[in-house]
Amino acid sequence: MGKKSRGPRKKHDAKPRKKQQAAEAAQSFLEDESEEEDFDAMKLDAAAAANKKKSGGFQAMGLSHAILKGILKRGYKQPTPIQRKAIPVVLEGRDVVAMARTGSGKTAAFLVPILERLGGRSPHTGPRALILSPTRELALQTHKFAKELGKFTDLKSTVILGGDSMEDQFEAIHENPDLLIATPGRFLHVVMEMNLRLTSVKYVVFDEADRLFEMGFQEQLTEVLHRLPEGRQTLLFSATLPRLLVDFARAGLSEPVLIRLDVEDKLSEQLKTVYVMCRNNDKTAILLHLLKHIIKPGELTFIFVATRHHAEYLRDILERAGVSCTYVYSSLDQAARRINVSKFQARQVPVMLVTDVAARGLDIPLLDNVINYSFPPRPKLFVHRVGRVARAGRTGTAYSLVAPDEAPYLLDLHLFLGRELSLSNAGSNPEESGLCGRVPQAVIDEELELLRCMQQQSTDLQNMERVCSNAMIQYLKSRPAPSSESVKRMKQYLREDLPPHPLFQVKSTDEDTRSRLLEGMKKFKPASTIFEIGNTGKSAAFAVMKNKRRKHDNLIERLSARVAHATEEKSEAKSSKASGSAVMAGEEEIEQTFSTVINSNTKVPSRKGAKGSAGSEPAATKSKKAKPGSFKDEQFYIPHFASDFHSEKGLELEKTFEQQASQAVLDLTGDDDRYLRKQKNALKWDRKRKRFVREDSDPKKKKIRTESGAWIPASYKSDVYKQWRKKAQMDAREAGSGDDDDDEGDAGSGLGKQKVSACDRLGKRHSGPSRQKGPKKHFRRELKTKEEILKTRKRKARLNYHVKKKHMERAAKKRRT
Fold first, then answer.
1. Are the CB atoms for 330 and 306 separated by under 8 Å?
2. pLDDT per position as a tens digit, 37-78
3. Per-domain residue ranges for the chain?
């Protein structure tokens, strides 16, 4: 009976367990089925997109499930124009030169196809993809982005940066990552130390390619490219590149595909630009007014300054004025730079003072404003600076403070952008973009009084202001000169009365009266000079002024007549422009009315069309009549410069960068400039040359010749890697990994492993003279032989026996007492 009662209880206990297992199996099956359905849905979407012959989303690009999942997880739904153009070409294996403005998604345009082509993890072949970035910030950002996109793959990426521990970088490369992201200087240092061959690299990316060549990395890039295989795929990505790619022929491109999206739209349509003409001494006061009254509280703002001394000086001023801020510049400590950037990203401080180190690739999401405290001397630098804002469909504003000596650069910028410089007037709209105006004196005086009080209370600010003025002198020496035409044209603009910018207009009758009075005082010129007032004709000074007037009166009259004529021409041009806009409106109506309109730019499709359009020829020639006073034939005239001359000139590379960089001393680290110059120009007698030569006080400047024939600094080759191998006992580790691992380990990466003999595996050492070149050092092995293990066990057993014997003797002695 007991046995019968035991059976149903077992059946009763097993029933819910079976139900639970069935439920778990059904749940897992449903989850797997849902994942398969999602993947099948993606495939269907891709097939539908292919059938429609539209680019659509990322599903239509034939990407794997893991990469596509990482893209969707990152939040991307539709590819940007540069991604839509570049990704399919890179997946085909072609070399690519891609140009698009900052913030257009260039990083994903090369990361997505590279991760797709790498496939899965390959731990025995070495790095297969190499990405070179000009700055550590851009490299860190690319590394973070690569990990997010490859989250659902088993690919491994490593970043090699200057300022980090080289031992950690040696260890990371020995782990054979699939993707290497590095800066050229430190990467070449590691390559030279480890004697890497880089034969396993199949894909090379030059991010911000023009910046890499401009920053003086030619030697490093030449040596790195020499070590790469010839069959690699090379990609050049940047925001600005010249049309002539002669400067990039050294990169070894073979039949590259040119993808150029930067010419049409150099700036985002959502970006509003504001240009403020002011004096150099008034820039700080205008900056305070912008941050206090115009920029909304809580908006993230970048302020670009010329030198690191300006960043430190303005930071103290803003902190005293109640504006919390931080700063980043090139010579700042790496830990401090990381902390300051994290503060700004977490919105703990709304303002960051930066030099041009942050103009390339530093991605701060949701940035609202950029202030150019020092106007950039190159148009493409302006494009990179203001490219921080107005990203991903957001709006943003770029404020530029332009001093009189920086005004010609403003004209160069507008020639580069292909836009006309528009000056503000009484009826200008504050929301209009691209206006240039001045700031009312009342606004400046209010903030200048606050600055005077700060400087009177603090001697540190006075000293820092003096340091900033000295640093500015050095900066101006290294700043490139503007074009002569822009200098001439800007002098005419500066002679005219520039009205206030609508953003700074003060609605007060007293202010208007005051400004008119000041303008009248500025223009007032007395009829006679101080030499003529109260003097008679017998005075020598009176006679000198009389002769001067006789010679210069005609020149003054001619100049005034020229200015009046230029003013009339300008007014006529404005009226003709207004009438021209009416004509254009009529042409748009004609195009809407008629189905086919053939103009001078339209290609004739067939002979019938050419015959049919013959009747419209007189009208076309009539509209192209030469203007009165002009002898140009619009149809046959060949201009001196190409239509895109100014745009291409702004995009070209600096060919004499090394010479300019040697003179561009922005960080004044020395206490006495005379001592630094004396030390730099010291002469030393050379016995071989029999003459005095300049002494090289810096031993790091000595150079060595590499295998490619390039000369690089001798500091790239030292014994750091050998010391690390001894310290990490790499020979013993590689010996313990077995013969198979030795054969397959680093065939592609070329780490240069040493052959390990059988005696070394057994822990024996040769005592011959060939093995004892230096002081003999014994390193403890990790693996023990059988004899050593047996000896250790016997010693431990003997020790335990003696300890046990002593305990027994003590216990017996206690019992006796």
1. no
2. 454 555 445 444 444 444 458 888 889 999 999 998 888 878
3. 58-260, 271-508
DSSP state of 500: B
Q: What is the amino acid identity at position 113?
A: P
CA distance 20 to 260: 60
Structure token pair of residue 458: 């603090």
- Lowest-confidence pick of 70-79, 115-124, 751-760: 751-760
Cα within 13 Å of Cα(480), Cβ side: 18
Burial (CB < 10 A; 0-12, 13-18, 19+), residue 778, is exposed
Q: How confident is the model at residue 265 (pLDDT cuts 50, 70, 90)?
A: low
The Cα–Cα gap between 2 and 282 comes to: 103
Dihedral angle of Cα 295, 297, 300, 304, to the nearest 10 degrees: 50
Residue 601 has which token pair?
A: 């730019």
Q: How confident is the model at residue 507 (pLDDT cuts 50, 70, 90)?
A: low
Among the four given CATH numbers 3.40.50.300, 1.10.10.10, 3.90.230.10, 3.40.190.10, the one describing domain 271-508:
3.40.50.300
**Are the CB atoms for 304 and 355 separated by under 8 Å?**
yes
* Owner of token pair 């200087």: 185
Q: What average pLDDT does this structure show over 149-177?
A: 90
Topology alike, domains 58-260 and 271-508 = yes
Q: Is 191 helix (H, G, I), strand (E, B) or coil?
A: helix
| Best mean pLDDT range from 26-40, 243-257, 384-398, 640-654 | 384-398
Helix ranges (H only) for 479-508 are: 484-495
Nearest to 505 by CA among 564, 437, 607: 437
The structure tokens listed for 738 are: 């077995």
pLDDT in tens, 410-440: 988 988 887 888 888 877 888 889 899 989 8
Q: What is the rounded CA–CA span in Å between residue 123 and residue 114?
A: 17
- State how far the Cα of 769 lies from the Cα of 515, in Å rounded to an integer: 93
Please compute the mean of the pLDDT values over residues 550-559 and round it to a whole number: 84
Do 397 and 274 form a contact (C-beta atoms < 8 A)? yes
**Residues 50, 704: Cα–Cα separation, whole Å:** 55
Question: Residue 548 carries which DSSP code?
Answer: H
Helix then strand count (H, E) for the chain reads 29, 19
Superfamily of domain 58-260: P-loop containing nucleotide triphosphate hydrolases (3.40.50.300)
Which residues, at least 6 apart from 768, have a Cβ–Cβ distance to it below 8 Å?
Answer: none
Q: What is the mean pLDDT of residues 243-251?
A: 50
